[in-house]
Design brief:
By secondary structure, the protein is an alpha/beta fold. The chain is built from 16 helices and eight strands. A hairpin with a 4-residue loop joins β6 and β7. The radius of gyration is 20 Å and the shape is globular. It binds 5,6-dihydroxy-NADP and zinc ion.
Length: 392
């Protein structure tokens, strides 16, 4: 086990009706003037936003709102939120939604706490985040895990560059998780979420490091639970037990727990960000479209690791490591398909891409040669190109 530091400070308030306590939580964390951030309208339609606003009014909290966050959230709206927040004298940012809303809220919080610094500089690593405002979350979709993660992902709408920022200042103060709030999700979004939750653990599980018994067991248990309940939730979005398991797994999968003591891979995430950046593809769907190609390209690096995954997660008894690995990859890809997720570029709806596009995706992914990606197998420019080509 490698040395690690684990810090997961977000307070989790889980269960039916918990959103009614949102105002109290904001007060506990010092909030009095709040910016509520939300997405394209699902929370307006469901009445959730009105309930939250009512609870804030009842608790004597002043607030203003910013709606319109799109999936693959745009930098320009976060900048607008910073401006709005500064003008209103905001001291707390409340995200009501999913990963896109939460990441926008994180960006806004950094911007309000650092007036005069353009927030994209944090994402470009030109300026370090050293202070931010507190952020709270009312979660409406089990997927990105941003509600407890140290990460935030934004897209610069001028260059269509999608970038993640990791900092402890990205950890929300609290998250309210009522699984019933996910009942209105379209099946496609539930499936995207299932893939993303699995990928946050798979991108940690496939590591060159061994000797992490408890971390591996936690990861495998989480994957089994998500696979089982993902099927149920896509079939029946209002199954409370399945929705509950997915919601809790979504947070545990990305708060760091399932990869402690080992190097993280995250190559599939890096590959997928270029697809979302260029084609505005849904995050979970672009992961599903790429993972099989990544796995088939890299498994020979350490087939034993895939064989362990085969046995523990899929119950595959084959003794031959390579055969077990291939079977597990096929099963995982077939599972994504069974949820209605794409497993190639054409299924993702972006068609078969030209050589020029593949080269461009590759260049962007490796920052024009300035970086490699992945740890399970370190991928250079030509590896990245081959994986995109396989998925094409
Ligand atoms: O915008 P509205 O109308 O709310 O609709 C949203 C959106 O269209 C809809 N939705 C959410 N909750 C709903 C609902 N529709 C009906 N009922 C509900 N209860 O779902 C759509 C997708 O929302 P989004 O917030 O984009 O989903 P998700 O949570 O999957 O977030 C994806 C974003 O998070 C980033 C992704 O790259 C992507 O930009 N990620 C953030 C991470 C982090 N900060 O730690 C890690 C992840 O790996 C990921 O990269
Ligand atoms: Zn993800």
């Amino acid at each position: 086990m490698q040395s690690f530091s684990f810090y997961s400070p977000t307070k989790v308030i889980f269960g039916k009706g918990t959103e009614l306590g949102t105002a109290d939580e904001i007060k506990k964390f010092g909030g009095s003037r709040v910016l509520i951030v939300y997405g394209g309208g699902s929370v307006v339609k469901s009445g959730l936003l009105a309930r939250i606003e009512q609870s804030l009014t009842g608790a004597g909290l002043a607030f203003t709102s910013l709606g319109g966050v799109k999936p693959n959230p745009r930098l320009f709206l976060a900048r607008e939120g910073v401006q709005k927040g500064i003008e209103f004298g905001v001291n707390f940012v409340l995200a009501v939604g999913g990963g896109s809303v939460i990441d926008t809220a994180k960006g806004i919080a950094h911007g309000i706490a650092n007036p005069g610094t353009d927030i994209w500089k944090f994402w470009l690593k030109e300026v370090e985040v050293t202070k931010s405002l507190p952020v709270g979350v009312v979660l409406t979709i089990s997927a990105a895990g941003s509600e407890t993660s140290d990460s935030a992902v934004l897209t610069d709408d001028e260059t269509w560059t999608k970038r993640g920022l990791s900092t402890e200042f990205n950890r929300p103060k609290f998250v309210v998780m009522n699984p019933e709030l996910t009942y209105t999700l379209p099946k496609y979004q539930i499936a995207c979420g299932v893939v993303d939750i699995m990928m946050h653990t798979l991108d940690r599980y496939f590591t060159p490091d061994e000797g992490n018994a408890i971390t591996d067991e936690i990861a495998e248990a989480l994957l089994r639970v998500v696979i089982k309940n993902g099927r149920v939730a896509v079939e029946n979005p209002t199954d409370y037990d399945a929705a509950s398991e997915l919601m809790w797994c979504g947070s545990l999968s990305h708060n760091g727990l399932t990869g402690l003591g080992a190097k993280k891979d995250f190559a599939t995430h890096q590959l997928s960000h270029e697809l979302s950046g260029r084609f505005d593809a849904a995050h979970g769907a672009s992961l599903a479209a790429l993972w099989g190609s990544w796995a088939r390209y890299t498994y020979q690096e350490k087939p034993e690791r895939f064989a362990r995954f085969a046995k523990s997660v899929w119950g595959i008894a084959t003794n031959d490591c390579k055969l077990a690995a291939q079977e597990a990859i096929d099963k995982t890809v077939a599972y994504f398909s069974s949820l209605g997720m794409p497993t190639s570029f054409s299924e993702l709806g972006i068609g078969v891409q030209s050589e020029e596009v593949l080269q461009d995706l590759t260049d962007r992914c490796v920052f024009h040669g300035a970086r490699t990606i992945g740890q399970f197998k370190v991928l250079n420019r030509s590896d990245v190109y081959e994986i995109y080509k396989l998925a094409n």
